[in-house]
Amino acid sequence: MIYLDYNATTPIDSTVRNAMLDCMENHFANPASTTHTLGIKSSFLLDECRETIASLIDASSDNILFTSGASESNNMVLKGVAEYFYSQGPVHFIVSEVEHKCIINQCHYLERRGINVSYAPVNDKGIVTLDAIKKLVNPATKLISVMAANNETGSLMPIKEIADFCLKESILFHSDAAQYIGKLPFSIQDIPVDFLSFSAHKFYGPKGIGGIYFKDKSLLSDSPLIHGGGQEYGLRGGTINLPAVVGMAQAAKITKERVISDLARQNTMKNRFIEQLRADIPDIQFNGCLQQSLPNTINLSLQGIRSRFLMNKLKNKLALSSGSACNSAQQANSHVLTAMGMDDDRIQSSIRLSFGRETTIEQLDTARKYFLDIYQMVNR
């Protein structure tokens, strides 16, 4: 089985697993129990991990809050900001049409509770432009949320442009960077976001742990996710999952060391795969922006071949996806490709490949051969 579903989740790095096991054995004490030495050691370890994770995005550790992952982080930010401004008058948010479902669905929730939400359209490459966003801004606009990279197509959004615009206009800016962090370098110093969401399992860390970078935590203070003993600045009560935090810190450390080399290698592999597949299947269609995109992600459509048929044929050979992992059990068309203006046939023929550190050129060659075999079988 060749695993080509890294955007859904990455395999945990062996050094991450070892660090977590060591933590479970030697740092099992509650970090909040600072009345004894074992608890103090755990507390120190938690602080060290927070610094390591913050350094991945060139942030201060005082601006990192731990959550269970990007979906929770996104919910904390949007609902928290809505609650903060709700009593002050009309509240308007802007998000793109191709955000992850955890953003789209909670915006529907917020709309039912009186928040006005505008959905910025994207172009045929799946990219939202700053001009499209500017057209939706009004005096009540409090927050703009645009993902850094799309999970289905890999298209990169102009988040620096948007962040600079928001800073100038005194509008809060949030970005879901779950697919971006770990694949491309990111620095808070270059992109002045107010909030950033991320998940460890997208960069070879454990599942169930992620975080928020926040510029001003007081904007979330009116609506703590969990009322408890004051952990995580009083915004998320409950005993911290220290082994998971340790795992995320180790994953962040490795990612920072090799993100540039991984980027170069994956870009080369991606370009080679696309070039050869185009030669094999001239009428193949690639969905999204091939130039302004993640180095590991390819979304394609084979004309006349439904993605579910193809994936069923290859389910014991290739791990693939036809879109977001969160929606893989649903039959509805991708809201991302629909927003890009594609017809039903192309959408229902779309396949997402996403590869990673452990993927080899030989594995991609094998995947290409499988695609070609099915294409030739259907088009005899």
UniProtKB/TrEMBL annotation:
GO molecular function, one term: transaminase activity
Record key words, sorted: Aminotransferase, Iron, Iron-sulfur, Metal-binding, Pyridoxal phosphate, Transferase
Cofactor: pyridoxal 5'-phosphate
EC number(s) given by UniProt: 2.8.1.7
Domain of life: Bacteria
Reaction(s) catalysed by this chain's protein: (sulfur carrier)-H + L-cysteine = (sulfur carrier)-SH + L-alanine
Keyword hit for Lipid metabolism: no
tRNA-binding keyword on record: no
Residues annotated as domain Aminotransferase class V: 2-365
InterPro entries in alphabetical order: Aminotrans_V_dom, Aminotrans_V_PyrdxlP_BS, Cysteine_dSase, PyrdxlP-dep_Trfase, PyrdxlP-dep_Trfase_major, PyrdxlP-dep_Trfase_small
Alphabetical list of Gene3D superfamilies matching this protein: Aspartate Aminotransferase, domain 1, Type I PLP-dependent aspartate aminotransferase-like (Major domain)
Pfam families according to UniProt: Aminotran_5
Family: Belongs to the class-V pyridoxal-phosphate-dependent aminotransferase family. NifS/IscS subfamily.
Protein name per the record: cysteine desulfurase
Gene source species: Photobacterium halotolerans
